[in-house]
Each structure stands twice: as structure tokens, then as C-alpha cells.
Write a structure and sequence with these properties.
By secondary structure, the chain is of the alpha/beta class. The protein has a single domain, classed as P-loop containing nucleotide triphosphate hydrolases (Rossmann fold, 3-Layer(aba) Sandwich). The chain has helices at about 10-20, 35-40, 60-70, 85-95, 110-120, 135-145, 160-170, 185-200; strands at about 1-5, 25-30, 70, 75-80, 100-105, 125-130, 150-155, 175. It has an eight-stranded mixed sheet with strand order 3-4-2-5-1-6-7-8, sandwiched between helices. A hairpin with a 2-residue loop joins strand 3 (about 70) and strand 4. Helix 1 packs across helix 8 (about 185-200) and helix 4 (about 85-95) runs parallel beside helix 5 (about 110-120). The longest helix has 16 residues, at about 185-200. It is globular and about 50 Å long.
Length: about 200
């Protein structure tokens, strides 16, 4: 399972990352992010969101979960239309994991929900923008707030050089995206595919 966090484009990258994995499931754990279903333009599709999911410690059938969620491309999406229950995160993740790779869209700040998601992760990806010192320092604060889980950075180009930005962040570089004003889904797909292949190896 992979967690994604960051200030610029983390939710979009999490969606792309899920889309390159066969039968991937995208789980939104950020209750103040506006809903990843809204971001992806599927908020009008029927299907369960966190508010309609009742786990309560019982068995959650993976097939029922898959058919009960709205989809973006090939991705089953569980959006956070209200704060998720931290106690249910591991159970939902375990059920989703029987379907395929699971990607969390994580909040930037520490919370019981974020910690519950990170506890399920093999890798945490922080998306950072190399635009200015303030943005990079904010991303470094996110990195330093993470528990002991393998972590790396996907860097969006900006005013700083890649090497200088990575030195400031102090985390392994997983890939580089074009600047915000020149978005490229192809670059995101290439990085995402490399991450999925690396975890599967």
C-alpha cells in the first residue's frame, strides 16, 4: 500500500498512481481536502463514500466494496465526504488489498486517521514543489512529521534546481514532474509505473 501526501498535486498524483495498478483502489483519508471524487469529476456518480460505509469491526467483503464504490477510469474510489473513522481504516484497507494495490490520499498534518493509513503503507510519497524556500520548508515539515515508514519525494520543478531542492528536503527522490504551468500526465504515469513496479519486485 502506498500513501501520498503533500501540498501541490498529491491527490492527482495518488489517482494516477492508482490508475497504473491493476484493480487499484484509491482511499481518500483527507477530510478537509474537498473530496477526491470532486477533484476527479466523479462526485455525481452513485456509490459509497466514507459517510455511507459502515464497518463496525465486521468482515467487509472485497467484492461488495469494489462494486459499491464509484470509479474513475479503472480505479475504485472511496472519497472522504466526512472524517473517516480511524479504527475502520485498517479494515477497509485489508479488504481493498484483496482486490489489488491500495493508494491512500493522506492529510498533510498528523492525525489518528493519517497514522492509521500510514501503518498500512509500504511506501509514503510526498509531492513537493520546488518553487520557493517557503514551499520546500513546508514539504520538509510534512516529511519530518511522518513516522518510521519508507518515504520518498516526487518533486515538481520550479525556481529551485532539483539537487538543491532534494538537499533541502532530505529525502530520497522518486521522480520529477514538470512545473505546474506545464502539466504532463505522461510524466506522472511514468513515475507512477516505476513505483508500482518497484514495490512489486
Amino acid at each position: 500500500m502506498i500513501g501520498g501526501s503533500g501540498a501541490v498535486g498529491a491527490s492527482t498524483f495518488a489517482a494516477v498512481l492508482t490508475s497504473v495498478a491493476e484493480r487499484g483502489v484509491l482511499i481518500d483519508l483527507d477530510p478537509v481536502g474537498g473530496g477526491i471524487d470532486v477533484l476527479l469529476g466523479i462526485d455525481d456518480l452513485p456509490g459509497a463514500r466514507w459517510s455511507g460505509l459502515r464497518v463496525g469491526g465486521g468482515y467487509l467483503d472485497p467484492a461488495a466494496l469494489e462494486t459499491g464504490l464509484p470509479r474513475w477510469r479503472t480505479v475504485a474510489v472511496l472519497a472522504a465526504d466526512e472524517p473517516p473513522d480511524a479504527d475502520s481504516v485498517a479494515q477497509v484497507a485489508a479488504s481493498a488489498g484483496e482486490l489489488g494495490p491500495v493508494v491512500f490520499d493522506l492529510p498533510r498534518t498528523p492525525s489518528p486517521v493519517r497514522e492509521a493509513g500510514l501503518a498500512c503503507c509500504e511506501l509514503c510519497v510526498v509531492v513537493a514543489a520546488a518553487t520557493d524556500v517557503r514551499t520546500l520548508v513546508a514539504a520538509r515539515a510534512v516529511l519530518r512529521s511522518l513516522p518510521d515508514v519508507p518515504t520518498g519525494v516526487v518533486l515538481r520543478r520550479g525556481g529551485f534546481g532539483v539537487g538543491e531542492a532534494v538537499d533541502l528536503l532530505g529525502a530520497p527522490l522518486l521522480g520529477v514532474l514538470p512545473p505546474v504551468d506545464r502539466p504532463s500526465e505522461r510524466a506522472a504515469v511514468r513515475i507512477a509505473a516505476g513505483l508500482v513496479d518497484g514495490l512489486a519486485a
